[in-house]
């Protein structure tokens, strides 16, 4: 028991360090970029204690709409808070700072939960609580380290591994005219192999994931469901032993997060019988939130080749195709 | 993902102080034993010598065994590279990432053809420790 406690204590110390460093980094960045007349420390501390209560699921009817509303309110509140903390920041900086504060918030929550169970285990002399803590520690530490790396990347506005899908879309739409199709989502009509493709991605280069599900649903509806193919590209978690940057194909909606955007695409696709294909670029959880690895950058061309092949094989000339690049577009323009 | 920490093994200064005192006492004991031997008191000499040598050996052992690993924690900044590309002549330039850079941002003119260069990629290089 003593040995396990010592081990948990050591990890808790590291988590505390990460939490404190995250907080410090957040305060420094807000002061540096925001140039606020007042000290933002208290506001940052309040932000780090922020919570959201999930909607009731005893009656699941309409839960997606309720969850979406809650997420919208949360997003709006976060952005307003950041604007109050850093009034001089532009849109890109505001988005980056919001992401950075969310990473700091995650580190704070991880530390507090681990500390809670550690103290509880010690108070109740429960070997089982402490042992459970020790068992999950390697995974928790991995996640915390990932958030610490993410925090650094968000502070600097560097592209992260999660943005692989967004980078594929940005590469395809670069030289074409872009319009905003949904909240924080841009779209460009790109001719590929004689088809009209609607390429979408979150609006960069600020830290943003946008509402790609909403955008896809809108494109399907605007075309009266006449979409021959939808291709969703995202970063996917690799299994241990797999190489980062491997590209894999499948079917389904490759959109992570709470499920609201995925649900919208599934609904729209089902209604109009649109086949949805997925391409994922593999990476581990750490790489997904850390600055983008070279292997991921190198995989972009491969993913584009796969998209072109899919278009040729699964659609005819003159068809409409949706290509959605999913992920956080921090550090990626369009 | 690379480790965000740097760690360093360091011995506790309090422990070092205790070991230093023990070490000095053991040397003093050996010295007393040597004096007793010169004075012809063989019984006291052997007692002091054994005591001094044992303490010396023990303090050395403790110093070796109880080196505490004190973590000196620091968040490492990872080197990030930005590649700039001239889309007209294909010239590539590589430099360190600077705050405000983003992929597809137009940057300084190409030194070869004076066309504006764009940031084609921003990445970090990870050296794998063992087999993936």
Notable traits:
heterodimer, A: about 325 residues, alpha/beta, Rossmann fold, 2 domains, about 55% helix, globular, B: about 130 residues, alpha+beta, four-stranded antiparallel sheet, 2 helices, 4 strands, about 15% strand, rod-shaped, disordered N terminus
Condensed summary:
The complex is a heterodimer of chains A (334) and B (132). Chain A is of the alpha/beta class.
Structure description:
The complex is a heterodimer of chains A (334) and B (132). By secondary structure, chain A is an alpha/beta fold. Chain A has 10 helices and 7 strands. The model of chain A has no long low-confidence stretch (mean pLDDT 93). Chain A has helices at residues 2-34, 41-47, 63-85, 91-123, 127-156, 164-173, 212-222, 260-272, 285-289, 294-314, and strands at 178-182, 185-192, 195-202, 229-237, 247-251, 276-283, 320-325. In chain A, helix 3 (63-85) packs across helix 4 (91-123) and helix 7 (212-222) runs parallel beside helix 8. Chain A is globular. Chain A has 2 domains: 2-156, no CATH class; 161-325, 3-Layer(aba) Sandwich (Rossmann fold). Chain A is 56% helix and 15% strand. Chain B is α+β, with helices and mostly antiparallel strands and 132 residues long. Chain B folds into 2 domains: 1-76; 81-123. Chain B has helices at 13-38, 42-65, and strands spanning 81-85, 92-96, 106-109, 116-123. Chain B has a 4-stranded antiparallel beta sheet, with no helix packed on it. In chain B, helix 1 (13-38) runs antiparallel to helix 2 (42-65). Chain B is rod-shaped, with a radius of gyration of 32 Å. Mean pLDDT of chain B is 81; it is low at 1-5 and 68-72. Chains A and B meet through helix 1, helix 5 and helix 10 of A and strand 4 of B.
